């Protein structure tokens, strides 16, 4: 047998190597594509879930050209509740005193039991239930006033705002069917112990969120003879206020100018500020509190933040200059000029409304859902929302405190210009 025959025997077959097509990926390449594809799908799913929670339209508006915004904004404006075009005018509010015509409360050093007006009135909305009572105790344990030096705590007024048991529970004694009766007794004891409850009388059904509670709260705040404040903030009990950051920001604003602060919805063409935390200067509060309105004007089936934003569109117009006194000078600046720190401009302050003089300050990012994609760190944020469980509230408080401690700002440091207000 020849050498050639033995080499080509069936035991040692020779095959011509197949040339791999350039268009056919190798096994390794396919695996890499699968991994990348799976990772991309995971990221898209995670991103989509979080973006939906954080308002997808806001994100689109932030990262796309302005010429594209009409594609999705127009579709969303078809919902009457979000558009400025369909907001009804409330005659009683429109006929009230102009929001810029009220005297700005002047801060002064406490004299005995007279603590004078507050710089900030922070009122936390709650309800008369066992779960809400537990949340109030948690908030007191991490009290917002701990962020303020003791000699300046009279400048911040922190209260809880609750109604009464529902009408059908009045006079009942069966706690299993009407737990509101037992909670009313506990609320009375709670007020005697802490003295920090505001009880709103006359609410529809005794207690509600979207049918007049906010309005009755503003009327209570702006009543004659009550304590005044330069800034009044409404806060939900699932929101963590961070006063070490909020108070310095308020000191850069002019409390004599009609102002509304909150986290805007979508973009600047929408009037809504989300309801978990927002604030107004004293003039706006007084105008709304003294307006002559009917229950039908305020007890509407609308979210309270939507209705509040609508009411601000009904504010009275600026009167003719010769018919009113000019606004008082900025109480924190002897020259009466609006001053803002050059190194920390905070947010864009838009021009006032040409009709009402109202300045609508969108502080999104400073106010946001906890761990949201648009939320600022604890050393910058004014408040974090969506803290439904006590565990999550504790976690957010710990995270914020850690960030503030790292910056050496665990407690607010008042400027020297306010030293005359310190309690001795």
User: Low-confidence parts, pLDDT < 50 over ≥5 residues?
Assistant: 1-8, 73-85, 322-345
Calculate the mean pLDDT score and round it: 79
Give me the count of strands.
10
Strand order of the largest sheet: 3-2-1-4-7-6-8
Summarize the amount of helix as a percent range: 25-40%
CATH topology: Spore Coat Polysaccharide Biosynthesis Protein SpsA, Chain A
Please write the CATH class name. Alpha Beta
SSE class:
alpha/beta
Content of β-strand: 5-15%
| Proper CATH architecture | Alpha-Beta Complex
Overall outline: globular
Kindly, what is the distance between the CA atoms of the first and last residues, rounded to a whole number of angstroms? 118 Å
Radius of gyration: 29 Å
How many alpha or pi helices? 13
Tell me about the largest β-sheet: 7 strands, mixed
> What string gives the helices and strands in order?
HHHHHEHEHEHEEHEEHHHEEEH
Number of domains: 1
Family: Belongs to the glycosyltransferase 31 family.
Membrane topology: Single-pass type II membrane protein
Organism: Dioszegia hungarica
EC number: 2.4.1.-
């Amino acid at each position: 047998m020849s050498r050639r025959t033995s080499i080509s025997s069936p035991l040692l077959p020779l095959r011509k190597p197949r040339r791999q097509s350039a268009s056919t990926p190798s096994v390794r390449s396919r695996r890499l594509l699968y991994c990348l594809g799976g990772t991309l799908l995971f990221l898209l799913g995670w991103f989509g879930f979080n973006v939906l929670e954080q308002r997808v339209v806001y994100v689109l508006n932030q990262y796309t050209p302005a010429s594209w915004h009409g594609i999705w904004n127009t579709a969303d404006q078809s919902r009457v509740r979000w558009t400025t075009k369909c907001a009804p005018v409330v005659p009683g509010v429109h006929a009230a005193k102009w929001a810029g015509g009220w005297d700005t409360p002047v801060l002064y050093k406490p004299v005995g039991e007279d603590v004078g007006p507050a710089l900030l009135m922070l009122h936390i909305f709650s309800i008369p239930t066992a779960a809400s009572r537990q949340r109030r105790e948690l908030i007191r344990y991490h009290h917002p006033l701990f962020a303020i030096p003791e000699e300046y705590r009279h400048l911040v007024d922190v209260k809880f705002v609750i109604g009464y048991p529902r009408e059908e529970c009045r006079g009942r004694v069966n706690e299993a069917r009407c737990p509101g009766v037992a909670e009313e007794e506990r609320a009375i004891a709670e007020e005697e112990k802490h003295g920090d409850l505001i009880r709103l009388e006359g609410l529809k059904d005794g207690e509600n969120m979207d049918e007049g509670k906010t309005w009755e709260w503003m009327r209570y705040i702006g009543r004659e003879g009550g304590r005044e404040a330069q800034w009044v903030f409404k806060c939900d009990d699932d929101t963590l206020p961070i006063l070490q950051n909020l108070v310095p920001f308020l000191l850069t604003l002019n409390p004599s100018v009609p102002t509304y602060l909150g986290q805007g919805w979508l973009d600047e063409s929408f009037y809504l500020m989300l309801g978990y935390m927002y604030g107004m200067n004293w003039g706006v509060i007084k105008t709304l509190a003294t307006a002559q309105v009917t229950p039908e004007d305020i007890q509407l089936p609308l979210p309270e933040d939507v209705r509040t934003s609508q009411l601000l569109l009904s504010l009275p117009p600026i009167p003719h200059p010769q018919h009113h006194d000019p606004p008082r000078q900025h109480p924190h600046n002897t020259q009466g000029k609006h001053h803002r720190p050059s190194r920390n401009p905070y947010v864009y302050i838009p021009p006032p409304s040409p009709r009402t003089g109202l300045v609508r300050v969108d502080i999104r990012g400073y106010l946001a859902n906890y761990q949201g994609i648009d939320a600022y760190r604890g050393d910058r944020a004014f408040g974090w929302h969506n803290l439904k469980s006590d565990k999550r509230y504790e976690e957010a408080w710990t995270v914020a405190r850690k960030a503030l401690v790292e910056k050496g700002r665990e407690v607010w440091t008042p400027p020297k210009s306010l030293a005359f207000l310190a309690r001795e």
